[in-house]
Design a protein that fits this description.
Strand order of the largest sheet: 3-2-1-4
Radius of gyration: 16 Å
Number of strands: 4
Largest sheet: 4 strands, mixed
Strand content: 15-25%
Organism: Sphingomonas guangdongensis
Number of domains: 1
Structural class: alpha+beta
Order of helices and strands: EEEHE
Number of helices: 1
Protein name: DUF2188 domain-containing protein
């Protein structure tokens, strides 16, 4: 199943952007910085964006420039890892 971006405007002006970061990961982000999703394909990103558009009555646009991830893809430093459970 393939979805193409829809530009139905929202009275609040929320925009959901679909695009790639500089590393080539597919991202979906909203204009308010409250939503982010990471996907393995353009199709998966567009499907998610379309579902979110319907929930939030937003418009969907392809990002004109690379998106910047809100949450880092970098590995978590050892000092920040969860404490192992007691057996």
């Amino acid at each position: 199943m393939s979805f193409e971006p829809s530009s139905e405007p929202d009275e609040r002006g929320t925009v959901i952007y679909v695009g790639q970061d500089l590393a080539g990961h597919w991202l979906v982000q909203d204009s308010g910085g409250k939503l982010e999703g990471r996907f393995v394909s353009r199709s998966a990103a567009l499907s998610f964006a379309e579902a979110e558009r319907q929930i939030y009555h937003a418009s969907v646009e392809m990002a004109p420039m690379p998106l910047v991830p809100l949450v880092s893809f970098d590995p978590v430093p050892a000092a920040e890892r969860a404490v192992a459970r007691a057996a």
